Amino acid sequence: MRMVNLIQKKKRGEILTKEEIDFIVQGYVRDEIPDYQISAFLMAVYFKGMTKEEITDLTMSFVNSGDTVDLSKISGIKVDKHSTGGVGDKISLIAVPLVASVGVPIVKMSGRGLGHTGGTIDKLESIKGFKTEMSIEKLISNVNKHKMAIVKQTQNLTPADKKIYALRDVTATVDSIPLIASSIMSKKIAAGADRIVLDVKVGSGAFMKTVDEARELARTMVEIGKLTNRKTVAIITNMSQPLGREVGNANEVKEAIEVLNGNGPEDVTVIALTIASYMAVLGEAFKNFETAYDELNKIIKSGKALEKLKELVMIQGGDPGLIEKPEKLPKAERHIEIKASQKGYISEINAESIGVSAMLLGAGRQKKDDEIDAAAGITVTKKVGDEVNPGETICILHTNLTNYEEAEVMARKAFVISDIKVSPVKYIYEVIE
Ligand code: URA
Questions:
Q1: Is 22 a catalytic residue?
Q2: Which residues are CB-neighbours of 379 under 8 A, at least 6 positions away?
Q3: In what order do the strands lie in the sheet with 393-399?
Q4: End-to-end C-alpha distance for the chain, whole angstroms
Q5: Which residue's C-alpha comes closest to atom 5 of ligand 1?
Q6: CB-based pocket (< 6 A), ligand 1
Q7: Which of 174, 175, 199 to mutate to test the pocket of ligand 1 (most atoms within 8 A of CB)?
Q8: In angstroms, what is the span from residue 425 Cα to ligand 1's centroid?
Q9: From CA 128, how far away is CA 254, in angstroms rounded?
């Protein structure tokens, strides 16, 4: 096989065989195929697409390029969840303890945030002492006993995806549905999931900017799940404004506690309960979605869900007292209020701009190895559809930096105020099974 011929084949829109896809992926991981040929191949995929079978072969080739996690010693159906990434997305912090509280075993391997989207690992590390690394033996014993673990993805999981993702980043080929779908599904399969719930975000803070694109991505991933025997449900959720009111690591932990206490903002509560309900149904704790939603809601109201988060913090070395007293989580020195300049209604809050502003305040990394500040972030005090008067606070920036002008300009520009009242946004667009 010659790489140039395979690029040619894809350039003409022809279908590649499993052996040809393996040749490309494994050859690249072994440094036998240079970046320039893989770049040309990625661009051919970008323009010509792939069939569901090709995407599944690509996914499994990524899985087989590195280690896979064997969770067979954990009893029960292991359900995993994945979000395509957003601003203020603290759903995992809520869904993991909630689903574990009904006995479904959850092993959540998470990543760090990069750019304007936050990562679950960074959020959890704002809880003093919380450890996100553990041996596989400890992970299995924790999940068998407590039904849950949230850990950092192991180093050698899907190295082909890591290497190809880095190349996509610099060759303008990130936003290709076959490439995104195989990248996400390979990580879930390698991490040992039996069944998967995907939160496919759509809007200004997400990779997918339209519902049509999100639907295509969701359908592709559900199809990969079918072809690899891992039942997958995808939920298309709104990311056209930040999720909830809090953005930033400690801030988001505080808001997750509020949701688990039964007094969180409605959008995060509804989305978290929906995701958790599908996870619980896939884990066979309930027969249908409606029952799961009602029962999980009752568990929140009873205080049991928050107790389960406290248990998670305790078993992973964190200080559970911080869950009882979230006001003791890291706090920034400076709080800058951004005020409305005119009367009207909030018609838009650009989620990406809020994410970038929070990053500039210290909440995220601009480069891979940057230190992050757990206390930095933004509280969004007015959401789309809310009425505002001149001088009223629309958001508050939290930072320990003295140089926050750029972040302030960015946050201010994220808000659009109009004379006409717009309807509040829809939280969930579609569920694809
Ligand atoms: N998230 C991933 O893990 N991979 C992609 O390609 C895009 C988003």
A1: no
A2: 245, 246, 247, 251, 395, 396, 398
A3: 246-247, 377-380, 393-399, 334-339
A4: 38
A5: 180
A6: 84, 165, 179-180, 183-184, 207
A7: 174
A8: 25
A9: 14
Q: Which of 161, 194, 199, 373 is catalytic?
A: 161
- Is 183 known to be catalytic? yes
CATH architecture of 79-324: 3-Layer(aba) Sandwich (3.40)
Nearest partner of 135 among 316, 332, 404, judged by Cα: 316
* Chain position carrying tokens 């305040």: 361
Report, as ranges of residue numbers, the positions in the chain whose pLDDT lies below 50: none
- Decide if 268 contacts 89 (C-beta within 8 A): no
How many C-beta neighbours within 10 Å does residue 215 have?
Answer: 18
Task: Write the burial class of residue 145 (CB in 10 Å: 0-12 exposed, 13-18 middle, 19+ buried).
Answer: exposed
Residues in the chain: 433
Helix axes 177-190, 52-63, angle to 10 degrees: 40
CA-174 nearest atom, ligand 1: 6
In the prediction, which pLDDT does 114 show?
Answer: 64
Q: Measure 221 CA to ligand 1 centroid, in angstroms.
A: 12
pLDDT computed for residue 23 by the predictor: 98
- Identify whether 413 is a catalytic site residue: no
Please list, residue by residue across 387-415, b when 16 or more beta carbons sit within 10 angstroms of its beta carbon and e when fewer do: ebeeeeebbbbbbeeeebeebbebbbebb
Domain range 330-418, CATH class: alpha beta
**Closest protein CA for atom 3 of ligand 1:** 184
Strand partners, 108: 150
| Residues 6+ away with beta carbon under 8 Å from 196 | 79, 80, 81, 82, 185, 188, 225, 230, 231, 232, 233, 282
For residue 187, indicate whether it is catalytic.
Answer: yes
CB 270 within 8 A of CB 246: no
Cα 283 from Cα 294, distance rounded (Å)? 16
Closest residue by Cα to residue 242 from 265, 211, 275, 218: 265
Nearest CA to ligand 1 atom 7: 180
* Ligand 1 mean position, distance from CA 63 (Å): 14
* Sequence spans of domains, the chain: 3-49, 79-324, 330-418
Q: Which atom of ligand 1 is found nearest the CA of 180? A: 6
Q: Is residue 398 flagged as an active site residue? A: no
368: left (phi over 0), alpha (psi -120 to 50) or beta: alpha
CATH 3.40.220.10 fits 3-49, yes or no: no
